[in-house]
Amino acid sequence: MEFEKDNSFFTGRLKSIGYAIKGAYKLITTEHSVMVQFSIAIMLIIAGFIFHISREEWMLQTLAFGLVLGIESLNTAVEKMADFIHPEFHDRIGFIKDIAAGAVMFAATAAIAVGLLIYVPKFL
């Protein structure tokens, strides 16, 4: 199948949105780490309604799990591409994959901090 560029602005954007939805669906249905993180995001949305969090807390919470899911998605893409290019173990590929995983850890740590700042006071 040959790539064919759509030069029309509107239909090109619609196709791009379709590809993005397809990619998000593949991530949520095939990648265990994304499944876990997406489930946590759903639980936080439910918790937000239960605890009546403020508008600012909603913004921070949404930004936090959006950041984690976005970085995790990029990490998955890096890992898949690295495995495709070099299927056998290689120190340099491992180094690249470790760096991508570290980026997820930074985002997840920040998200945990946001969650704690929002929800711990609700329990105290």
TrEMBL record:
This is Diacylglycerol kinase family protein. InterPro entries: DAGK, DAGK_sf, UDPK. Its main location: membrane. GO terms for molecular function: kinase activity. It holds the Pfam family DAGK_prokar. Belongs to the bacterial diacylglycerol kinase family. Keywords: ATP-binding, Cell membrane, Kinase, Lipid biosynthesis, Lipid metabolism, Membrane, Nucleotide-binding, Phospholipid biosynthesis, Phospholipid metabolism, Transferase, Transmembrane, Transmembrane helix. It comes from the Bacteria. The chain crosses the membrane at residues 34-53, 99-120. It is a multi-pass membrane protein. Its EC number is 2.7.1.-. It is found in: Cell membrane. It is an enzyme of class 2 (transferase). It comes from Flavobacterium paronense.
